[in-house]
Prior knowledge:
By secondary structure, this protein is an all-alpha fold. The protein has one domain (about 10-50). It is built from two helices and no strands. It has helices spanning about 10-15, 20-50.
Amino acid sequence: MSTTTTTGTRDLAARPTRRVRHEARDSVALMAFSALASTGVAALLMLLVRLGG
Length: 53
């Protein structure tokens, strides 16, 4: 019985490396989504408070 796995460096070599600009673009997209989501939640809470009186 062998303890070697079939997933090795061959899988890593087949995958292209990500550049810094790709990481930066993903980070900016995540920050924009987070900002929009938190702004939307804050606006919704403010609307609920105003309607609730």
